[in-house]
Amino acid sequence: MPENNLSTKITALAITYNEEENINRYVESLSFADEIIIVDSYSTDATEKLANELNVKFIKNEFIDFSSQRNFAIEQASNDWILFFDLDEIVTPELETEIKKAVENKDGIVAYFVKRKFHFMGKHIRFGGWRTDKAVRVFNKKHCKYTGLVHEVITAKGRVCTLKEKVDHYSYRSFDNYNNKLNLYSKLQAENLYGRKVRPNAYHFLFRPFYRFCWQYFYRLGILDGKEGFILAYIHSFSVFKRYIQLWMKYRKIS
């Protein structure tokens, strides 16, 4: 793997499960990193085979929750500066240039948000809350760690800034694949609520899904994204409903 010719060395990390369709593209877009490490949750497709062919470090680790898996990956990194993009995110050449400048910055910034350009069913989604979507993807591991079971976030001790360039986010592979992701999120959120002793009631089953749909489709103008905006609002509101169904099932010991 070619070196980035910077004084600051970079490690690119990823967590995977059945990502054979994305792994080549991911490695290519992050080939400027000094090392690439993939932590895999025992994929059943060709992810491991392709990773070995691409000559990246591949480690298997049982998945417990997203934060635990990401923090485990960070422990494997040889370098302090980390790029932690998802396999469905593509780093553009413009973003690569900005990242290289950012890690060389010596003004005390320990992490950078990267704005995401979300694509769904072949369409760039501009509304429904996606326009302001961003996540910490570049950070110094000495000052940062992940917290949260589902929508894991970086806790940073130091200055955090936002990069100007966006990463292309292609979360949609197929309807079933996208729905399965939301199923996993709902399950982990239900486990979190169960641990906090939250008991579901009519408010959770009726109002919370309805509010989610209205918030995304009307208040955040998802309606302007056409049928894709409606589908997104619907399946996300239904995932809220499933969260409380799964929580209800846990209290009743139903698997």
UniProtKB/TrEMBL annotation:
Q: Which InterPro entries match?
A: Glyco_trans_2-like, Nucleotide-diphossugar_trans
Domain of life the protein comes from = Bacteria
Q: Where is the Glycosyltransferase 2-like domain?
A: 15-117
What are the protein's UniProt keywords? Transferase
Q: Does the keyword Transmembrane apply?
A: no
Q: Does the keyword Transferase apply?
A: yes
Q: Which Gene Ontology molecular function entries are recorded, alphabetically?
A: transferase activity
Q: Report the family membership.
A: Belongs to the glycosyltransferase 2 family. WaaE/KdtX subfamily.
The molecule here is called Glycosyltransferase
